TrEMBL record:
<feature type="transmembrane region" description="Helical">
    <location>
        <begin position="573"/>
        <end position="597"/>
    </location>
</feature>
<dbReference type="InterPro" id="IPR036259">
    <property type="entry name" value="MFS_trans_sf"/>
</dbReference>
<feature type="transmembrane region" description="Helical">
    <location>
        <begin position="633"/>
        <end position="654"/>
    </location>
</feature>
<keyword id="KW-1133">Transmembrane helix</keyword>
<feature type="compositionally biased region" description="Gly residues">
    <location>
        <begin position="129"/>
        <end position="144"/>
    </location>
</feature>
<dbReference type="InterPro" id="IPR005828">
    <property type="entry name" value="MFS_sugar_transport-like"/>
</dbReference>
<keyword id="KW-0812">Transmembrane</keyword>
<protein>
    <submittedName>
        <fullName>Putative organic cation transporter protein</fullName>
    </submittedName>
</protein>
<feature type="transmembrane region" description="Helical">
    <location>
        <begin position="427"/>
        <end position="445"/>
    </location>
</feature>
<feature type="region of interest" description="Disordered">
    <location>
        <begin position="1"/>
        <end position="23"/>
    </location>
</feature>
<feature type="transmembrane region" description="Helical">
    <location>
        <begin position="312"/>
        <end position="332"/>
    </location>
</feature>
<feature type="transmembrane region" description="Helical">
    <location>
        <begin position="515"/>
        <end position="532"/>
    </location>
</feature>
<feature type="region of interest" description="Disordered">
    <location>
        <begin position="114"/>
        <end position="144"/>
    </location>
</feature>
<feature type="transmembrane region" description="Helical">
    <location>
        <begin position="544"/>
        <end position="566"/>
    </location>
</feature>
<dbReference type="GO" id="GO:0022857">
    <property type="term" value="F:transmembrane transporter activity"/>
</dbReference>
<feature type="transmembrane region" description="Helical">
    <location>
        <begin position="344"/>
        <end position="363"/>
    </location>
</feature>
<dbReference type="Pfam" id="PF00083">
    <property type="entry name" value="Sugar_tr"/>
</dbReference>
């Protein structure tokens, strides 16, 4: 064995720096004919536990190493599936040989010729090594298979990989086939829905920058004559005396308390600053230059003493988002994702149209509260449904591009819809009516197969998958569906076992409690800063519609940047850097003159917090243990809405000073970013499954650790250094679909996260297997 494996060990050592997060290796033979050199291995005695090891041409092994960018990982979270700790290891690669763990029931299936290898590879399609108990890339808890395997290469030892998880079935029906592409395009209307629901209230409640008291006796005069005669000068802006040529700022809320009929009779055309003043008595006039249409705020005169009402209405909208998230989350878990998706959009449609016919503030607030019901779920449910049916290696693309392209396009178009309609009532109807299209959702979008499985409706789930099979022009053996059906029964049992946990369990142990509190504070800071930047565009001194469009367009480069860097630079330092950058840009914006420079810096702050927002919930979902992940992410998500309730009042501080909102947002951004450094990094690490895992996760990390600069160490080396009992964990894969309330925007953004939620390699089991091999004399 030593003579056989010596060349292989040398090549592995030279390629170690090229490997990324790989624990064990699966070798592929190039699909080219040449003579095989066979070395005979002594036949083990009957009843012996020594694994059967067959030699393979050294040129074939070296070719597979040289032709692959990195050795395929069997237990890595980035590109391969995972081994279960509740089934016995069927093929063990650690010291340069392929064989069966002594704990196995029968030897690994090893082929003697290339023809047999290729034949078995064609049958198995995924090139996994295994036996009836579960192979490399598969296993009892779930294995994703070789997601990035080159089909031109085949495994040295091949057996059919069992289908034990929904992700194992996706390669059979197609990971991003015709049906998935249709669903991807069907995300477009829902992305427009959420943009309209989220941002439309900004343009419905706008108040023109200039407004002054209405004086009916002076309406025959010009605007400048009326203001010069009836409105006091705002000395806090203009100064005590306005020199010739200086722009005069008039008071918005007071007027002179004189008899203007007598003033006109005495031919007085300019006010005496010594005249007494009083609040506006007959309403207001507005300069519609910056906001070229009447809004609900101008119609109902929500200015001066009532200027807080638009802010209060926006906070009520977020209260509706919290209530709607809880209500439709329950509906989604009880009756299915499609009824919840259609229902929340239809409520948003009815309440949005009704907004155009309100007669007072409380009617308006009730309608916006109900529109808020749709905000949390009108796109998120569709987003998660599509990601569920897309293969792991396509999820990052679908998740980011659906936001970067569809949501950004809708956000950039919205202000110009308001501008050209020039009527807030028409605008409310036009932006709400499309939500009625959700009534066709049951006809076009399939129900969640994971939810159907969790409800015991396995036949319906398989029926949906057969529809994918047909549209994607695939042919699947009936036994594949049978394996999937059998595994679903086991998954239901595991889900029942995990139902005893609650979000309160996150606060019972000190380290996990600290992580949870940090996640809550960081996500609240991100939510408040993000929403604050969204609503503060009107205080930047430039055209509101143009500024909003440019700020919304930053979503595209932000998502693109995140796609390229998240799995390279890690979560912690990227979250810290972008949040701190957002805070610094916001503070710098207060140090330059109001106008183009200030607006540019503020928009850069918006760009940075866009990146942080996209990291936030994914980070939370990766840090929380599987058994409470769904409930924990939902709880953190709700706390973010609590912070968003405060955001409109932060923006309202602009009435005191235009710089105050940016100062508050800047300080919160810096604090939130620095707090991120106290969290452990998740990139390249097995994610916690049990509460004990969550308590121990990241304990050995240092605050200055950075994934790009970290020394790459084989996981097989790490498992020799770490206490093996620390990573003993219960396997559960159903938590990813346990609650749609947890299926927020960032939870499935990376394929790594989805694979990590699935059951991981039990290092304890592998260590025991290795010890047993040594004791057996291998």
């Amino acid at each position: 064995l030593d003579k056989l494996t010596a060349p292989l060990k040398g090549r592995i050592k030279r390629n170690k720096e090229k490997e990324r997060r790989n624990t064990f290796r699966e070798f592929y033979v190039p699909n080219r004919p040449h003579k095989q050199k066979t070395k005979m291995t002594p036949k083990p005695e009957e009843g012996s536990n020594i694994p059967v090891v067959h030699a393979v041409d050294e040129r074939e092994l070296s070719g597979s190493l040289n032709n692959s960018s990195s050795l395929s990982s069997i237990a890595g979270a980035n590109s391969m599936g995972n081994l279960s700790n509740n089934l016995k290891l069927s093929a063990f690669i650690n010291n340069g040989f392929v064989g069966e763990c002594p704990a196995g029931d029968k030897p690994a299936m090893i082929s003697d010729t290339q023809d047999e290898l290729r034949k078995e590879h064609k049958n198995s399609q995924n090139g996994s090594i295994g036996n009836g108990g579960g192979g490399l890339g598969g296993g009892g808890g779930g294995g994703g298979g070789a997601a990035n395997a080159n089909p031109a290469k085949m495994a040295v030892a091949v057996a059919e990989k069992p289908v034990v998880d929904f992700d194992d079935l996706l390669p059979h029906v197609g990971e991003f086939g015709r049906y998935q592409k249709i669903l991807f395009l069907l995300m477009i209307p829902f992305a427009f829905f959420v943009a309209f629901v989220y941002f439309s209230q900004i343009f419905i409640t706008l108040v023109p920058e200039e407004h002054w008291c209405y004086v009916p006796e002076l309406q025959h005069l010009s605007v400048e004559q009326r203001r010069a005669l009836s409105i006091p000068v705002d000395e806090s802006v203009t100064g005590h005396f306005a020199e010739d040529g200086e722009t005069i700022s008039y008071s918005k809320c007071t007027m002179y308390a004189v008899n203007f009929t007598e003033v006109l009779a005495n031919n007085i055309r300019k006010a005496d600053p010594s005249w007494p003043t009083q609040p506006c008595q007959n309403g207001w006039e507005y300069n519609y230059t910056d906001v070229p249409y009447a809004t609900v705020a101008t119609d109902f005169e929500w200015v001066c003493d009532h200027a807080y009402l638009p802010t209060l209405a926006q906070s009520i909208f977020f209260l509706g988002a919290i209530a709607g998230g809880l209500l439709f989350g329950w509906i989604a878990d009880r009756y299915g994702r499609i009824p919840a998706l259609a229902g929340c959009n239809l409520i948003g449609f009815v309440a949005g149209v009704a907004t155009a016919f309100v007669g007072n503030f409380w009617q308006f607030s009730l309608c916006r509260f109900l529109v808020g019901f749709a905000f949390d779920n009108c796109f998120t449910m569709m987003y998660i449904l599509v990601l569920e049916y897309v293969g792991p290696k396509w999820r990052t693309f679908v998740a980011n591009m659906s936001i970067a392209l569809f949501f950004t396009t809708a956000s950039c178009a919205l202000p110009w819809i308001a501008y050209y309609l020039a009527d807030w009532k028409t605008f409310a109807i036009v932006t709400s009516a499309p939500l009625a299209l959700a009534i066709f959702t049951p006809l076009l979008v399939p129900e969640s197969a994971r939810w159907l499985v969790s409800q015991g409706k396995i036949d319906k789930a398989i029926g949906i998958l057969k529809k994918f099979e047909k549209i994607n022009r695939k042919t699947i053996d009936a036994k594949v569906y049978q394996e999937f059906s059998d595994s679903c029964v086991r998954l239901q049992e595991e889900e029942a076992a995990n139902s005893n946990y609650s979000v309160l369990d996150l606060f019972k142990t000190p380290r996990l409690r600290n992580i949870t509190i940090l996640l809550i504070l960081i996500w609240m800071a991100i939510s408040l800063v993000f929403d604050g930047h969204v609503r503060n565009v009107g205080s930047l001194g430039l055209d509101l519609f143009f500024t909003f469009t440019v700020a919304a367009a930053t979503e595209l480069p932000a998502d693109t940047f995140l796609t390229l860097t998240l799995d390279r630079w890690g979560r912690r330092w990227l979250a810290c850097g972008t949040m701190v950058a957002s805070g610094l840009f916001s503070l710098f914006a207060t140090m330059v003159p109001m106008g183009a420079y200030s607006a540019t810096l503020a928009i850069l702050g918006r760009f940075s917090v866009n990146i942080s927002y996209n990291i936030g919930l994914q980070y939370a979902a990766e840090l929380l243990p599987t058994v409470v992940r769904a409930q924990g992410v939902a709880f953190i998500h709700i706390m973010g809405y609590v912070a968003s309730i405060v955001a409109p009042f932060v923006v309202y501080l602009a009435n005191v000073s235009p710089s105050l909102p940016l100062i508050v947002l800047g300080i919160l951004g810096i604090i939130g970013g620095l707090l991120s450094l106290l969290l452990p990094e998740t990139l390249g690490h097995d994610l916690p499954q049990t509460l004990a895992d969550g308590e121990e996760f990241g304990r050995g990390q240092k605050i200055w650790d950075f994934p790009c600069l970290a020394k790459k160490v084989d996981d097989c080396e790490r498992c020799d250094d770490l206490p093996v009992e620390r990573f003993t964990r219960a396997t559960s894969k159903t938590s990813i679909g346990a609650s749609l309330r947890a299926s927020t925007r960032g939870e499935l953004r990376s394929s790594m996260l989805n694979r990590s939620i699935r059951s991981r390699v039990s290092v304890r089991s592998l260590a025991q297997c290795k010890e047993e091999q040594v004791s057996a004399g291998v």
